[in-house]
Design brief:
By secondary structure, the chain is mainly alpha-helical. It is 55% helix and 3% strand. A two-stranded antiparallel sheet has the order 1-2. The longest helix is centred in the middle third of the chain and has 43 residues. It comes from Plakobranchus ocellatus. This is Reverse transcriptase.
Length: 360
């Protein structure tokens, strides 16, 4: 296993010599490693154009991609049409591409196809609920009671008794409507709680156990960058460590590492294990798409197998999008948040399979 990881590191960290084509041109147009290393294929100018025609799909790492407005799980026919459409587009754009180009642009093609088909998810502003006749009548009675209170204060002793009788009648009516409205709200809340419990019992129970957490990080950019530099940098990293006595040398592994390319069943197991709510990585492709589109998942499996055989780690799998999650209630400072990193789903599947094999 150690030799396999060393091969991954050496092969993906070779620096180009000065004046070489790899240094002078763009990464997409100059990759020369083919999907099958044993075959040599000459690419014409037409092939190079085919490789670069989807460069419009590329986004810089600073762009925040919009969330896709996916179809609900009940729309089976439309989902199958989308699955076939994405596979055809992937085949047309990546048919003559190199392995590096396929790995780098696969997620972008899938994202752009879904975005063109469904569009981006729009932020919906909640409209205030329409008030019922009972609620409108309660508002009217409340105004009349306030008005009568003012009249009682300014009225003479002869008029006060009559106004009090009217006020008590309004109060009785308002109290009856208030009790009916309170009972209706309790029934509605009970029905909603039952639906939430049936939909996700663990999430429903978690709200009674976990402490509520705020989600506002009030720090400026300079403070955040200083915190990141202090946390993830080491000024003494170049200084060799002293030998530590008493360390026990671990025993040699008893089982040989399975270095065969990942099977389709392993990829499906990784996808099924992940929650559909997982936030997507920088390329904007969520796990939900691979859960619903099996043909696209099979295409991804072929690319992952080729990457494993040819020992290729894509640079698209390295960047991560950082998010800060609050640790406690009223979290405001940077120390009250914990960072998480969101990687592209394609790379996560690749390394999840490798990690699962190390654990078995």
């Amino acid at each position: 296993m150690a030799s396999y990881l060393r091969m991954l590191y050496v092969k993906n960290n070779q620096s180009p010599t000065p004046g070489s084509p790899l240094q002078e041109t763009s990464p997409i147009a100059t990759v020369k490693t083919l999907e099958n290393q044993s075959q040599v294929q000459n690419h014409s100018a037409k092939d190079i154009q085919a490789e670069n025609r989807d460069d419009v799909l590329r986004h810089s790492s600073s762009d925040k991609r919009q969330k896709i407005n996916f179809l609900p799980a009940s729309s089976g026919k439309q989902r199958e049409d989308l699955d076939s459409k994405k596979v055809l587009k992937i085949d047309s754009l990546l048919r003559k591409s190199t392995l590096e180009h396929k790995i780098a642009t696969f997620g972008d093609i899938v994202y752009q196809t879904c975005l063109d088909t469904f569009g981006a998810k729009q932020h919906q502003t909640k409209c205030p609920p329409q008030r019922s006749r009972r609620q409108l009548e309660m508002d009217t009675l409340r105004k009349q009671k306030r008005k009568l209170k003012k009249q009682i204060r300014a009225a003479s002793s002869e008029e006060t008794n009559g106004l009090l009788v009217i006020w008590r009648q309004l109060k009785t009516r308002h109290s009856a409507l208030s009790r009916a409205e309170s009972a209706r709200k309790k029934r509605s809340q009970k029905r909603k709680n039952q639906e939430r419990f049936i939909r996700d019992p663990f999430q429903f129970a978690r709200q009674f156990i976990q402490q509520s957490k705020s989600r506002t990080l009030t720090v400026d950019r300079e403070e955040l960058e200083t915190h990141l530099k202090k946390t993830y940098s080491d000024l003494t990293r170049e200084i060799p460590l002293e030998e530590t006595t008493g360390l026990v040398w671990p025993a040699a592994p008893g089982i040989k590492f399975d270095s065969k390319p990942p099977s389709l069943q392993e990829v499906i197991a990784v996808v099924n294990k992940a929650r559909a709510k997982f936030a997507p990585g920088p390329n904007g492709v969520p796990y939900l798409l691979y859960k619903r589109c099996t043909n696209v998942l099979k295409k991804l499996h072929k690319i992952l197998r080729s990457a494993w055989k040819n020992i290729k780690i894509s640079k698209e799998w390295m960047p991560a999008e950082g998010l800060y999650i609050p640790k406690e209630q009223d979290s405001k400072g940077i120390n009250q948040f914990r960072p998480i990193s969101l990687l592209n789903e394609e790379g996560e599947k690749f390394f999840s399979i490798m990690a699962s094999r190390l654990n078995t």
